[in-house]
Structure formats: C-alpha cells, structure tokens
Amino acid sequence: MSQEKTAVPGLGDGFSANPKSKLYSRSSTQVNYVNNSAGTIVPGMEQMAPGAKIKDPKDGNSSPVVGFLYSISRQGIGEYWPVHLGTNKIGRSEECSICLRENTVSDLHAELYVKQMKTTHKILASLKDVGSKNGIFVNDEELDYSTHECFNNDLITIGLNYKLLLILIDAESLGLSVSENFMAVQEEEEPEIPFQPQNTGFNPYDHNRRPTTGTVAMDGSQGTEPGGTRFM
C-alpha cells in the first residue's frame, strides 16, 4: 500500500516535514479534553455500526489531549479517539483508552506512549506491541516487540482490519491557545413548580350531591347552562 500525505482541514500547514516518512513531524502544547474509550462517534453511528458504544466521558483520562487516532474501518462513516499525554492502551477490552471492537484485535494489543519535551514542547510518540496475536503495521512496515517511533500522519494497522491515522497537533504553530476573555454560557435551569391538587370534597360519582343544571366539571364546578350548544 502506498502511503500518501493525508491533508486534515486546519492542520495541513501546521507541521514541518518529517524526513523519515515524508509526512509531518510532531509538537504540541497542552489542550484539555475528555477521553472516550469507545471512540467518539458521529451522529447516527450508534445505530449503523455494530458494537459501537458511547461511554460516559466522566470515566475518561484527564491528561491533556495532543492528538487523535482516526479510522473509517468500521463502516466508513468515521470514528476517532483522543490521544493523551502518557500511556494510551490500545485493544479490544473496554478497559483500554482506545477500544477497538474487532475480532482480530487482542484484548490488550499495543501501547502508544506520548510525551512532551519541556524545553522544545515537541511531542514524541512511540508504539509498542505488548503481545498481540495478529501484530501491528506502521506504514506497511510490520513491527516486532520493540518500541517504534511514530510521527504525525502515520498509518497504523492494529490486527488485520483496523487502520488508524495518527494525528498529532502542534497547537502553538497553528495559533491555538487559551482565550483570556473566554466567556462560558451559564445554563439557567427552569424552576420546578410542584403539582398541588385541589381538594374540593366533590365526588363526581355521588349522585345524591350532583347538580341538576348545566355541565359539571370533575372538581364540582358549575359549567355551561343547559339549553343548546354555544358557538364562539
């Protein structure tokens, strides 16, 4: 398979060329995000893709997000997982931060290590097979059990069928930063008005106390006068 440069909107001009893979190199500043171990799913995917699950983001990794893994292998409509600083476990188990629900993926298949240099702020990423059954390929190169350095826009194949595009974000070169004047929208909750039933003592089934003139409401109040239908 030939490896071509993949252009991601908003990211294409933000990375310097990587002489090893002729793709992009990687560096980044910190960005906060929540983790979704089952992948972030586009609207409607939970019905279209078998086995796709949406997990509670409260259970996610609190480390800064410095990139993503993107795939269309499941059904072509797209899913992605945030890549955090530190260790990102890849596998079929729901305990993995990057959960790939596919039969040729091992429960714990690989680990993607990501660190940020303190002096240059560059992002360094490496991938390691931790004992998978069906192996790993990076840009059509099969990995052994040693640690392999990864770069932005590398194409990673986990198992036999899951192909993932590695996207590492250089927020500083793209001009992304925390806004000093960011104004969050405060959601106002509508006050709940408790239901208070009125007890009038009227029993609609008591024929001895039923009024004999006009229509009577269920609460005993007198309705319209008898004598025909009234039009508006």
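[next item in queue]
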Amino acid sequence: MGDDGYREWSSRYGGATVWTKTVAPGAIGSPVLPDGCIDLIWADGTLLVAGPDTKAHHPSASGRDYVGFRFFPGTAPTLLGVPAHELRDRRVDLADLWDTATTRRLTARVDDALDRAGALEAVVLERASGVGPVDPLVRGVVGALDSGRSVTEVAEMLSVDARTLHRKSLAAFGYGPKTLARILRVRRAIAAARGGLSFADTAATTGFADQAHLARDVREFAGTTLRQLLSRP
C-alpha cells in the first residue's frame, strides 16, 4: 500500500505549492525525491521543516495526516532565517529554528483550523510580509539551470563569478549549482519518461550523455531505477 489522497495546488506565495497527504495505517509512504525545495510540514500537531534532499527520503510513519507548504527552490531560507545547507537531508522541528512561544502559537493555529492547509499558507504569507525580499539571483539560477544551461553559462549570464554563485547556491538551495542542475535534470527526465518517451530519447532530450548516464543519476538521487519509478502511481 502507498499514499492515499495526495493533493497539491499552487500557493499565493510566488511559485510555492500547498499539499496534503494521508498515509493509511500499515501503508508505506511513497519516497520523496530530491527537488531543490524546502517544505514546512504540519504532521499530527507538530510543525517541522524538511530540508533540501540529496537522496530519496522514505517517510517512516504510517496512519498520519500531513499538510505541507513546498517553497519554490531557494526561497525558504529568507523566511526561515537559516541557510539551506544547514537543513540539507534533515527534518527539523520548527521550534529548533524559531522561538518556542511563536512555534507553539503557530502550531495551535494550524491544529485548530478547519482548513489546515489554508492556515499553514497564511502562516507563511504573514511571515513573508515581515522579512526581506528573496535574493533575485535565486530565480535566475533555477530558471537557467532548469533550461539546461551549464553552471559556467549561468554565472556569466548573471554576472557573478563561480565562487559567488557557489556560495549563494549553498545558502539558497543547500548545495552547489552543479548538484542542483543534476537534480533538476533528473526531475525533467522522470517527467519526460512519464510522458511516454523511450529511455534513450529521454536521456537525449534532457541533457544526459547517454542512457547509462541517465540510469546512474536516477539511481543516485532516487535510490531506484527509472523503470521502477514509472511503475509507481
């Protein structure tokens, strides 16, 4: 058995996604693949932050309800007040990042809401109104890398040197631009294969040297094969 009733929709906060999920008792939650994102998650009375992953995350709890807010890559650190690399491959209680009183108040607010997804989104929107703007370079990096540009091309396009690009990427995404580019490329490949392309054509159209290269990167970041991923609902 897997996840039951997963839903997601666009948030009012630039490029973000709100989602809900129920993992039935005895079920095994579907693995969460790296995507360059950070999530704020309500799970049965707790608010936690899921940092940017470099490998598939396998949820261990079943019989739980989840409500999540998935930030557009690179936009969460400004709101959370912590650089993304400190959250890499971690799940952290929000109380470890924000003061206890604030966390308790916000958790109770989501707990008591009839629309918990709406309440969680409101928490983010209110917090965002009180912090500084996200570095405009962030969206440029994501867009350029996701279009298949090389790291060198991205640095030149954004008029920054390689060291500055790497430093800003660590703080925004949790890893350097090369790793982010590979993660985004794997996600493009999975989407292309789900759309019906052969594995060879998927590799060719999404920037891999060949099908073997595609297979290695999928295995590294997803922990399984592309064929097994496509067999999942």
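[queue empty]
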